[in-house]
Fold each of these.
Amino acid sequence: MKWAFRLVLAAAAHGVLFMVAALLFDKFSLSFTGWLIGTLLFTLFTMLLRGIMASLARKYASSATFLGGLALTWVGLLLTDLFTPREDFDLEGVGTWISVTLIVWVGTVLYDQVDDRLIDAVHARSKGRPAG
């Protein structure tokens, strides 16, 4: 249950981040279908890759966490771009790739700051205990 709730929250955050990035960059085209498929694929790819990155981060300390997060975001976007039809989800140009990667990464970092607390609060409330 906790994992499913985390997946829904992550997808919601990624969907908002994709909309913001698409509004900011002309070379990031996004249809409604692309937004939906892209959000789902990106969320799935990044959640699967997160475990790999977490084990590397534990092994190589904080610099790996920073670089790993950026790499994870870029790989997630790359896979999403490859597996989503071009007319629905398309990133073009080095500047667009860098900017969208940074926007989605920063948004994900901010989301991660509240994610665990929100999950714990919902879990505690569903068990009838006060959060905190």
Amino acid sequence: MTKVIALAGKGGTGKTTTSALLLKYLIARKKTPVLAVDADANANLNELVGLDVQTTLGEIRKELKGDMPTGMSRDQYMEMKIHQALIEETGFDLMVMGQPDGPGCYCAANQYLAMTMDKLADNYEYIIVDNEAGMEHLSRMNLRSIDYLFIVSDPSARGIMTARRIADITGPLKLEIKHQYLMVNRAPDPVPRALQAKIDEAVAEADMDLAGIISSSDDLIDQELSGASYLELAEDSKVIEQVFAVFDAIFEHSA
């Protein structure tokens, strides 16, 4: 069975960084193949894994407003274009959602997208969805059941408060979430008592467990500034060891 991993959180908390590190972890642990979906309107997951994007699903949805090729239905055309938009790499594929829809109704396009995602899902062991805070894309892709939701925060009171709010809205969205976690990025080492208290309070009062607290890392900063892929980070670097330990505790325990 394909397992769906979604990430959410307010802007700037490190959702995309966490997605890239999670992808590196799954590849290293041979939990492949993986489909990585960049569902954030400000798409940049491809940059962190060193890939260029030629086509986004937002562009494909716009094409569905026009005429279809002769002898091809809209769902056949959508399925063909989605497969063309997949960026295929060793151990994983990447798909970029692109900018949100403009004026007009895209209900039919989103329906075709959901149908095609259902078919794609069977080809992967894991699907990672780097998502916006509102999580609307999860409904559009028909991913109603989520095995792991990582709500990502920076080491700030606002970030942790937003994480709590996201945890609270998953119920009204009628998403079936099997495991829900808080992950705090770029934390000082050691963690200040005030920050730890905010984290403990959020975990206690919201329906989520603490996945881990990831320390601020010069390795990640240097990798991003150089434009190098996060997938190339050495596994003996401090941040990778820390991240892998967090994910081992989650995925090996719940496997």
